[in-house]
Amino acid sequence: MRDPPLFLVGAVTFLPYLFLLQVSWSLVLWALLRRRRLIPLSLSGVFGVALLNWGPAWFSRGEQADGESLTMMSWNVRRLWGGAASGDPGVCVIEVIKEVNPDVVTLLEITRNDLAILEPALGMSCVHGTYTKGGGDGHGGLASCVRGNRWKLAGGKAMRFVDNEDWYYVFSEVERSGKVLNVLAVHLYPYGSAIAGIRATEVVKAQGGQSAALLHRVARFKDPTVVSGDFNSTRDAALHASLRGHMVDVWEKAGRGFGGASRYLEWIPLRIDYIYVTEELAVAESRVPAVDCSDHRPVVVELILRE
């Protein structure tokens, strides 16, 4: 399979903005050429395609169900280096997590040294793994954590996405009243990563392989499952179409608006952070708190484990 051309990767990444550009240009042409009927017809076609593609996310509504409630947060905390907010990034992260008060948290770009600060301050129990094998306490990685006493961390470990690639996610099990929930903290290959050691044009194919491996493992689980983290790809990428075919994108189910938790060049909002769940979990609400402790904002979801 050939690597996708770079221009196609860029077009998929910024597809909503290309749509807005097309609409703006068409409106300008229509204003200048009022008698051309083809322009409004083409505009109607563009709006129709956009409605089919993005409409579900803009008009989504959460659902209610009987069962055990769970507040889940996923956040790329950028190794506590901070974001636009002033002050100590670690303190900022602690304050936000306390305010949201999640039961389960997955953290990306976090070291064991960072967790040594966060765990006691937040009363969390965590499983940590570095992105690559043999990373030390100061190496970046992922963590799956339980906060408070409603849910218990039953165990977990770092696991390879693909057997022949040195890139890991963190698998954990959390439980309450005999009910078990699988939680996977993931961070797919970033673009231009020196760690990954692959060209930018190869990243899309590698990400697709990693997401396919995740789906293969999720299909074997008997218990409800959450896959959350930084996917380094926008919702129009092929891997997300595949994920939505097997799991529920909580933002499309119960979010409002665009849901961008990261900004390209600190300016253009992009939705590259996701929480996916299996059908046993009802999605009541999803939100992206407007905080600037990192270059990413957290994704939060209110879930109900169906009875």
Description:
The chain is an alpha+beta fold. The chain has 8 helices and 14 strands. The chain has helices spanning 6-13, 15-32, 38-58, 89-100, 112-122, 200-220, 238-246, 250-254; strands at 67-76, 104-110, 124-130, 141-147, 152-160, 168-176, 179-187, 225-230, 248-249, 262-264, 268-270, 273-277, 281-287, 299-306. The strands form 3 sheets. A 6-stranded mixed β-sheet has the order 3-4-2-1-14-13. A 6-stranded mixed β-sheet has the order 5-6-7-8-12-9. It is globular. The N and C termini lie far apart (43 Å).
Which outline best applies? globular
Element order: H for helix, E for strand: HHHEHEHEEEEEHEHEHEEEEE
CATH architecture of the largest domain: 4-Layer Sandwich
Radius of gyration: 20 Å
Strand order of the largest sheet: 3-4-2-1-14-13
As a percent range, the share of helical residues equals 25-40%
Q: What's the average pLDDT?
A: 85
CATH homologous superfamily label of the largest domain: Endonuclease/exonuclease/phosphatase
Terminal CA distance = 43 Å
CATH class of the largest domain: Alpha Beta
Question: Which percent band covers the strand fraction?
Answer: 25-35%
> Based on helices, strands and strand pairing, what is the structural class?
alpha+beta
Total number of helical segments? 8
**Number of domain modules:** 2
In CATH, the topology of the largest domain is named Deoxyribonuclease I, Chain A
Which spans of ≥5 residues are poorly predicted at pLDDT below 50? none
Annotation, overall tally of beta strands: 14
Report the sheet with the most strands, covering strand number, pairing sense and barrel closure. 6 strands, mixed
